[in-house]
Design brief:
It is a single chain. This protein is α+β, with helices and mostly antiparallel strands and 129 residues long. It contains four helices and four strands; from the N terminus they run H-E-E-E-H-H-E-H. It has a four-stranded mixed β-sheet with strand order 1-2-4-3, sandwiched between helices. Helix 2 packs across helix 4.
Length: 129
């Protein structure tokens, strides 16, 4: 029985400033409080992901880093169906998720909201295709 490795490698992270600018300039947004997801379809077959938390509500870096860690973990465990759908069509997707809430979340809430975001993206991807 083959096991699936749930990883989030360096190739899967958005690191390019150009890609970030393109994402926010040309991309579409999806609001699922307390998350806001910006995404753009790409021609190259890659699924890239990034996270962000504002300093307005979370002054301490420790809090921001914890929320980012929770977001990355929830995404990492649930990205497989979206990744498979993108591979079938040889397309790519850049996704950036921002936490817009005012209080520190627990993991279950982040996981639930990320599930909803990825399901919406999967559905919209099928409509665009």
């Amino acid at each position: 029985m083959p096991t699936t490795r749930h990883t989030l490698g360096s190739r899967e992270r958005i690191k390019s400033r150009k890609r970030m600018e393109q994402l926010f300039r040309e991309g579409r947004a999806l609001q699922v409080p307390p998350l806001r997801a910006s995404y753009i379809l790409l021609e190259e077959p890659v699924l890239q992901f990034g996270v962000g938390v504002g300093t307005r509500h979370f002054k301490k870096a420790v809090d921001r880093n914890r929320i980012k860690r929770l977001l990355r973990e929830a995404y990492r465990l649930q990205k497989q169906p979206l990744q498979e759908a993108l591979q079938k069509t040889n397309r790519g997707l850049a996704l950036f998720v921002m936490y817009t809430g005012r209080e520190l979340p627990d993991y279950h809430r982040v996981y639930e909201k990320m599930t909803y975001v990825l399901a919406q993206l999967h559905q919209q991807f099928h409509e665009i295709r």
